[in-house]
Amino acid sequence: MFITFYPTWIGEYGSDAVPISRQLWLRKMKAIVAARLGGPEVLELREVEDPVGGAGEVVIDVVRAGVNFADLLSLRGRYAAAPPPPFTPGLEVSGVEGGSGRPVIALLTTGGFAAKVVADSRFVFDATELDLELAGGWPLVTVTAFFGLSEMARLRPGETVLVTAAAGGLGSTSVQVAKALGAGHVVGMASTPEKREFALRQGADEAIGYDDPVPPVDIVMDGVGGKVFQSALSSVRPLGRMVLFGASSGQVPEIPSFDALRRRNIGILPFSLGMLRASDAVRTADLATQALNLLRSGRVAPPIGRTFPLAEAAQALEMLGSRQTVGKLLLAP
Ligand SMILES: NC(=O)c1ccc[n+]([C@@H]2O[C@H](COP(=O)([O-])OP(=O)(O)OC[C@H]3O[C@@H](n4cnc5c(N)ncnc54)[C@H](OP(=O)(O)O)[C@@H]3O)[C@@H](O)[C@H]2O)c1
Q1: For a tag site, which of 140, 214, 260, 314 has the least CB within 10 Å?
Q2: Largest CA distance in the chain
């Protein structure tokens, strides 16, 4: 929208008043706003002013915004990196860079659930070879899975990897990234037969339920916590590593004592992409570029479970939080 101000007298020069006609462009866009803390019901679709980029930032016309469990946590006030309300959630997008028209994907600190977003240029990556209608849900999970497997667990070719919630966004991507990095055997854990079937389709060699016996593994990728964490922990071989991403079950992992871990020779490695970015943006962006090459080579393509219109962001988050989804969810502005 633009607003026109017809001849406006804004000053006098000498004895003559000077009429000046100005147009003020106040462009507006649609965005999802968390008006207060709570569940998905606090989200509102609003018209807000277009964001304006500063130094070192780019404005992106969003094609797709990825939905993540962290968005739910940010609504609840339980995601450390989220701003206080009112704010627009959303940690990743695909889209077109303003000015250049270049196709890009971006990792954000907030603001993705909108028609436009401002991004730190260090976390905007070329997406020329990618399908923008899918890639909005790719960067966050691909980068997280890569950091977990390659940097934290230091996966070596042939090792066995156990992935919990293996049909979910991070889980299904971890299965793909583990195979791409040379894992010998990948075991996917998930709650239902349909989800286990989904994990197998992402490349898992074996899929088990949470109550099934767990085979011995070298590496665990866990974002569920609670009892699932305990069961996965019991399966780790000596010299094994367990990367902890979060607690979608609502129960944070109860990490055993120094002595208990030392007896078993197991490494427990909590990881947060947001905190790593906050503490060392340059290194995070550099390694993210390596991770995203897995997308460009076609070796990793996180599955998209469903795309919702932007206005249905609350429904998407409701389904994510109640275990009704597989793969990644997207919003289309
Ligand atoms: N640290 C990081 O940098 C980072 C980055 C990305 C994600 N994460 C974390 O990784 C986890 C997965 O995130 P995501 O966005 O990819 O979500 P997601 O895995 O697509 O969805 C969550 C999954 O968790 C499982 N789950 C188990 N108990 C649950 C419960 N009580 N309520 C809801 N879900 C439950 C469900 O799979 P089943 O039905 O198969 O159990 C569900 O589908 C989250 O903990 C998230 O915070 C962390």
Answers
A1: 260
A2: 92
Question: Which pLDDT score is estimated for 80?
Answer: 84
Instruction: Report the distance separating Cα 216 and Cα 144, nearest Å.
Output: 24
Candidate from 224, 231, 252, 331 with most ligand 1 atoms within 8 A of CB, to mutate: 224
DSSP at 321: H
**Which of 248, 326, 330 to mutate for ligand 1's pocket (most ligand atoms within 8 Å of CB)?**
248
DSSP H/E element including 72: helix 69-75
Query: Which residue range is the domain that position 310 belongs to?
Result: 28-138+302-332
Contact 90, 117 (CB under 8 A): yes
pLDDT digits (tens, 9 = 90+) for 213-270: 999 999 999 999 999 999 999 999 999 999 999 999 999 999 999 999 999 999 999 9
| 162 within some domain | yes
**Ligand 1 binding pocket, CB closer than 6 Å:** 68-70, 140, 144, 165, 167-171, 190-191, 195, 223-224, 245-250, 271-273, 320-321, 323, 325
- Supply the CATH number for residue 181's domain: 3.40.50.720
For residue 246, which atom of ligand 1 is closest to its CA?
45
15 within a domain of the structure (yes/no): no
Is 296 a member of any domain? no
Structure tokens at 62: 């969003």
254 CB-near residues (< 8 Å, 6+ apart): 229, 230
